[in-house]
Design goal:
alpha/beta, Nucleotidyltransferase, domain 5, 3 domains, 5-stranded mixed sheet, two-stranded antiparallel ribbon, 12 helices
């Protein structure tokens, strides 16, 4: 008889705690094994029947996904932030909870990319990480000057040509040493970022989707490469609203007191939902891409549309957000269809 088994794995750096449940939720087995390929595969092979496995997204998730996926009937990598903690938290209860939620379809899977785009995905992550590191160093450098009452607005403080002028404004040897190290770190990160950008662009050119993405206003070669490396495929997003949320462009609303009684009948009120800003759980790299694309398009091919929104009373930040959402939805639609951007087919609206 082909038994169905649900396996929950609580993965850590050194060890992995495993719980196996049957179709009615009975614990069939529990184990603590080393987080290495051989012990994990040995445990999977030891289980008979149709196997379904679940573990949380984390550092080892991509490696485990590729290792386990070909050997089981179903694999779910879930978001740990969407799992409610009940009672005391410990490794064995966590593994059992994952297996039980897998059995009852209570887990929402996190997308893991296809092998065809794995290289560009790794290169995109390398590039965006270096850019984030550069931003942190720049913030530390400016904080050093602001802490001493020195105005450092703009980007002049980063320029190698003007560093002597900034250097003499620092009052002690220790502070000058700190600033010098930060400038050295910034130069090193700039060189690494440039190399990472070249590698990313070279790899992205091998994919046909890059030409489609580059044809969209505001999206150049680098932004197209980042979109391809981060989003991987447009077909993981069913609607543009799902894509907006992933990119941090989804609007969060709050509604309360939706219904009222009129002559003994329940009716829905006409209260408008209260807008509470944009969603907080999103991919930062894609949000930067579409915000930057909106600023480029607002001063370029879509300038007339941007100016019309501002003239009609829309504040500039909201007009830029509307453009960013329009570019994101256009990107998703064209990417799915495999078509390049055609300005004559575009229908502009004043609200995305």
């Amino acid at each position: 008889m082909n038994h169905l088994k649900y396996i929950g794995m609580d993965v850590h750096k050194a060890t992995t705690v495993i719980a196996v449940l049957d179709s009615v939720g009975k614990v069939l087995a529990e184990a603590i094994i080393e987080t290495k390929a051989s012990p994990i595969l040995d445990f999977i092979r030891s289980q008979r029947g149709t196997l379904q496995v679940a573990f949380e997204e984390g550092t080892q998730a991509a490696w485990l996904h590729d290792l386990i996926r070909p050997r089981v009937a179903n694999l779910v990598v879930c978001d740990p932030r969407k799992i409610a903690i009940q009672g005391n938290k410990a490794d064995k209860p966590d593994a059992r909870r994952l297996a039980e939620m897998l059995r009852t379809n209570g887990l929402k899977p996190v997308y893991h990319g296809e092998r065809s785009t794995r290289t560009v995905k790794e290169l995109a992550q390398s590039y965006t990480s270096l850019v984030e590191d550069s931003t942190r160093v720049k913030n530390r450098l400016k904080a050093l000057f602001r802490a001493r009452g020195i105005d450092c607005s703009g980007s002049a403080v980063y320029s190698p040509k003007e560093r002597k002028e900034w250097f003499v404004q620092l009052d002690t040897a220790g502070v000058r040493t700190r600033a010098g190290r930060l400038w050295e770190e910034l130069d090193c990160l700039a060189a690494l970022s440039e190399a990472a950008e070249k590698e990313l662009l070279a790899e992205a050119r091998k994919h046909a989707a890059t030409k489609i993405l580059r044809s969209i206003p505001g999206i150049g070669p680098l932004r197209a490469a980042v979109i391809l490396g981060v989003a991987d495929t447009p077909h993981r997003f069913r609607t543009k609203r799902q894509f907006w949320t992933y990119c941090g462009l989804g609007i969060v609303t709050k509604t309360t007191g939706e219904y009222k009684l009129v002559s003994g009948q329940v009716c829905k009120t006409k209260m408008r939902p209260l807008v509470r800003g944009l969603n907080h759980n999103y991919n930062r790299a894609l949000k930067q891409v579409f915000k930057g694309a909106a600023m480029t398009a607002a001063s370029g091919p879509w300038k007339s549309h941007f100016d019309a929104m501002v003239a009609n009373g829309t504040r500039e930040p909201l007009a830029l957000l509307t453009l960013a959402r329009k570019i994101a939805s256009t990107t998703l639609a064209l990417w799915k269809k495999g078509e390049r951007y055609d300005h004559n087919k575009l229908r502009m609206k004043h609200a995305a």
